[in-house]
């Protein structure tokens, strides 16, 4: 897919096999990132006049990038459903329960997860999220009317739900408030640019691009006054307390990805690298002592570039060049 078509489409997961278990369902679903360009067409950048509320039915497997009101009505038992929500990098996801008619005692549930889960891997990783894992799940059947609105910490969230009875339904209103200091982001497109800033906070932030891409680091400011080296996975950067790492892998969890390069000195770029993995991550680690900033651009690698990288690479995790 090329040009504007690729920019207009983001993704929904098309490959979803039977989701397993009751309590373990959340962690072991077989959703994969494959076929991610396929379903979400004009809805991604849909412009709705402010006085109107966009609305449509919610599907058992769904992907939503628009604000609006979404209603699921069971036409049969649906035991393993998931809806993925994504916003712009500088937004978060707010999910409000407008009306809910499900049988919690009969095993139905609606659970909002603060992030995404695919094949048991989570974004953001547990290392990069402020909340413990179990606090990232909010179960309507546990909280009920006491918590009618759930807001994510980053630009992605998802809703798991299970409904047994025909005619059971629920309606969600999704909004996308502005996040002044975005941290942990999944890019909607395989090409773009971003500037990540951590304002004297002890936290880790990851920018995930679910494509093989070339990354160009244009600027890096870590509160140090040193010259710039780029080091292939050297342990010294981790000891600095403030650094940026480039990661590559084929899953969602940055903590399980391969470290391609460490950057731990100030510089004005460009420094660039091609990473032929299904997922590329720019991750900033901040000690909280400085205002840290990294600016970068990224673009999708074409087939010829991927083939050249594969032939020339000596690495065994994906392909780098």
What are its keywords?
321 residues, mainly beta, Jelly Rolls, 6-stranded mixed sheet, 5-stranded mixed sheet, corticotropin-releasing hormone binding
Describe the structure.
It is found in: Secreted. Disulfide bonds join 60-81, 104-141, 183-205, 237-264, 277-318. Binds CRF and inactivates it. May prevent inappropriate pituitary-adrenal stimulation in pregnancy. Belongs to the CRF-binding protein family. The protein has helices at 3-8, 140-143, 236-240, 303-312, and strands at residues 55-57, 61-64, 68-73, 78-86, 94-101, 109-113, 116-118, 121-123, 137-139, 149-151, 156-163, 169-175, 185-186, 192-199, 202-209, 213-221, 230-231, 243-249, 258-263, 267-275, 279-287, 291-300. It has 321 residues and is mainly β. It has 2 domains: 55-175, Jelly Rolls, CATH 2.60.120; 187-226 and 234-312, Spermadhesin, CUB domain (Jelly Rolls, Sandwich). The strands form 5 sheets. It has a 6-stranded mixed β-sheet with strand order 13-15-21-18-19-17. The longest helix has 10 residues, at 303-312. The radius of gyration is 20 Å and the shape is elongated. 39% of the residues are buried. Mean pLDDT is 81; it is low at 1-27, 39-43 and 225-234.
Main sheet specs: 6 strands, mixed
Per CATH, the superfamily of the largest domain is Spermadhesin, CUB domain
What's the overall average pLDDT, rounded? 81
The largest beta-sheet arranges its strands as: 13-15-21-18-19-17
Beta-strand percentage range: 35-45%
Q: What is the CATH topology assignment of the largest domain?
A: Jelly Rolls
Oligomer class: single chain
Coarse structural class: mainly beta
Radius of gyration: 20 Å
Order of helices and strands: HEEEEEEEEEHEEEEEEEEHEEEEEH
Spans where pLDDT lies below 50 across 5 or more residues: 1-27, 39-43, 225-234
The end-to-end distance, rounded to whole angstroms, is: 23 Å
Helix content percent band: under 10%
Number of strands: 22
| Number of helical stretches of at least 4 residues | 4
**CATH-derived architecture of the largest domain:** Sandwich
Q: Look at the structure and give the CATH class of the largest domain.
A: Mainly Beta
Number of domains: 2
Shape: elongated
């Amino acid at each position: 897919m090329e040009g504007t078509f690729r920019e207009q489409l983001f993704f929904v997961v098309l490959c979803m096999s039977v989701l397993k278990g009751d309590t373990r369902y959340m962690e072991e679903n077989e959703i994969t990132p494959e076929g991610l360009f396929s379903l979400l067409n004009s809805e991604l950048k849909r412009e709705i006049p402010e006085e109107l509320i966009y609305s449509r039915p919610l599907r058992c497997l769904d992907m939503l990038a628009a604000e609006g009101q979404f209603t699921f009505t069971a036409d049969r038992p649906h035991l393993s459903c998931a809806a993925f929500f994504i916003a712009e990098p500088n937004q978060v996801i707010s999910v409000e329960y407008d009306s809910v008619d499900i049988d919690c005692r009969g095993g139905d549930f609606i659970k909002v997860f603060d992030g995404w889960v695919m094949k048991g891997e989570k974004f953001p990783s547990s290392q990069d999220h402020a909340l413990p894992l179990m606090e990232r799940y909010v179960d309507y059947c546990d909280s009920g009317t006491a918590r009618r609105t759930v807001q994510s910490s980053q630009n992605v969230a998802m809703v798991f739900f299970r409904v047994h009875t025909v005619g059971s339904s629920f309606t969600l209103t999704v909004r996308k408030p502005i996040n002044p200091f975005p941290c942990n982001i999944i890019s909607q497109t395989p090409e773009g640019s971003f500037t990540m800033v951590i304002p004297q906070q002890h936290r880790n932030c990851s920018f995930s691009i679910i494509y093989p891409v070339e990354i160009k680091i244009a600027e890096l400011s870590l509160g140090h006054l040193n010259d710039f080296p780029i080091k292939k996975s050297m342990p010294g950067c981790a000891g600095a307390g403030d650094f940026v790492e480039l990661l590559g892998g084929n899953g969602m969890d940055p903590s399980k990805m391969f470290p391609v390069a460490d950057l731990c000195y100030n510089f004005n770029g460009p420094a660039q690298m091609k990473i032929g993995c299904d997922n590329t991550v720019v991750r900033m680690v901040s000690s909280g002592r400085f205002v840290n900033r990294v600016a970068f651009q990224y673009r999708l690698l074409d087939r010829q570039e991927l083939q050249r990288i594969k032939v020339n690479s000596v690495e065994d995790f994906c392909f780098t060049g």
